[in-house]
Design a protein that fits this description.
By secondary structure, the protein is mostly helical. It has a domain of 109 residues. It has twelve helices and four strands. The strands form two sheets. A two-stranded parallel sheet has the order 1-2. The chain has a two-stranded antiparallel ribbon with strand order 3-4. A hairpin with a 5-residue loop joins strand 3 and strand 4. It is elongated. The chain starts with a helix and ends with a helix.
Length: 282
């Protein structure tokens, strides 16, 4: 890659993450103060974005950030997704605005059992079929997590431990042998739900009216943004990543090296007089 293209990529990432004000600042260390914690987290995400990966996995990228910084970060990640990057993130306590920025949602119960896996726009429709409704002025993801943790009990009488079984029955999956007891406990109380194209269909006309408008807006935004096709982009090889890793650590200050040298000299200076004293006694 030419140096000019590298500069353009870096400038694009700096602009998307709103890091122009600290572009000439030091990140800092534990001993030396640098940029703030939120800015440091955005820099860490930017370091991964400049590599232009085909898959970007993030573990709680918004933790420790305020609302505006979190929204700015997810906007940049959504832009990368529109450009063809597969973005997978674990988000801690997302606000309603951040929650609606995602395309798909995976809800896991205790033990890693799947409760929901599908579009964000249809998650409320699915839980409504189970008799679980989100109260007014309550963030939907917070309400679902509270139910899975046992903090809030569903009004429909469904137990939280049975939600993974309901998801299996809804999709027609075979219930494992170790969950047959839960299946028997559900019994006739299992809601009569059936997979319908109106929930997970791909055509906007089959979706509910309130989702059809949003689906059409996303489709127009996707076509008007004219993203370049990056589906054939390859992730840098292991040698290139290792070279990048060495380059980062080679640019660090020599403070750690000076500490090691001082420790070595202190040990040497303590050992030399002791050895000379033993020679004189002998």
């Amino acid at each position: 890659m030419k140096h000019r293209d590298k500069v353009l990529i870096v400038e694009r990432v700096i602009d998307s993450l709103d890091l122009q004000g600290i572009r000439n600042s030091l990140v800092g260390t534990v001993e030396k103060r640098g940029i703030s914690g939120g800015q440091r987290k955005r820099v860490n995400v930017g370091i991964e974005m400049v590599m232009e990966p085909s898959l970007l996995i993030l573990d709680e990228p918004t933790s420790g950030l305020d609302s505006s910084s979190s929204q700015l970060l997810l906007r940049a990640l959504r832009h990368e997704a529109v450009e063809g990057v597969n973005v997978c993130a674990v988000v801690h306590q997302p606000s309603y605005t951040l929650y609606n920025m995602f395309d798909d949602l995976i809800l896991l119960a205790k033990g890693g059992l799947m409760v929901y896996n599908g579009p964000v726009k249809t998650v409320e429709d699915y839980f409504t079929t189970l008799g679980i409704h989100v109260p007014d002025r309550v963030n939907p993801p917070d309400h679902y997590i509270d139910i899975l943790e046992g903090i809030v009990k569903p009004g429909s009488g469904i137990k939280a431990k049975h939600l993974p079984v309901h998801w299996m029955l809804y999709n027609g999956y075979e219930v494992p042998s170790d969950m047959q007891d839960d299946l028997k406990e559900i019994g006739e109380q299992t809601p009569q739900i059936s997979s319908s194209p109106s929930m997970f269909g791909s055509t906007p006309h089959c979706l509910p009216l309130r989702n059809a408008f949003t689906e059409e807006c996303d489709r127009l935004e996707h076509h008007l943004s004219k993203p370049k096709d990056l589906s054939s982009r390859k992730t840098p090889g292991i040698f290139m990543q290792y070279k990048y890793y060495l380059g980062r650590y080679a640019q660090q200050p020599f403070q750690s090296g000076s500490k090691i040298l001082n420790s070595y000299l202190s040990v040497v200076t303590k050992y030399i007089p002791l050895q000379g004293y033993q020679t004189e006694v002998a």
